[in-house]
Write a structure and sequence with these properties.
With about 60 residues, this protein is α+β, with helices and mostly antiparallel strands. The chain has a single domain, classed as Multidrug-efflux Transporter Regulator, Chain: A, Domain 2, CATH 1.10.1660. The chain contains three helices and three strands. Strands 1-3-2 form a three-stranded antiparallel beta sheet. The protein is elongated.
C-alpha cells in the first residue's frame, strides 16, 4: 500500500516551504491529487521519490 502524505509533510521531508510544494504541484512537477472540494493535496511517497530522482538526474546533467 502506498503511503499518502500531506503538503506539510512533504515540505518537511524535502526541507522546502509548504507553498513551494503547492507550486510544484500546480506546475505538475510533483504529482498529487486533491481530496474533496476544499481539501488539501495528497501526495504519494512514490511521487515524492520520483521528484527526488528527477532532481538528481537534472543535477548530474548540469554538472557535465
Amino acid at each position: 500500500m502506498k503511503k499518502i502524505l500531506l503538503t506539510k509533510e512533504v515540505a518537511q521531508l524535502l526541507r522546502l516551504h509548504e507553498e513551494y510544494v503547492r507550486e510544484l504541484i500546480r506546475q505538475r512537477k510533483l504529482k498529487a491529487y486533491k481530496e474533496g472540494r476544499r481539501g488539501g493535496y495528497r501526495i504519494t511517497s512514490e511521487a515524492v521519490q520520483d521528484y527526488i530522482d528527477r532532481k538528481h538526474r537534472e543535477m548530474e546533467v548540469s554538472k557535465r
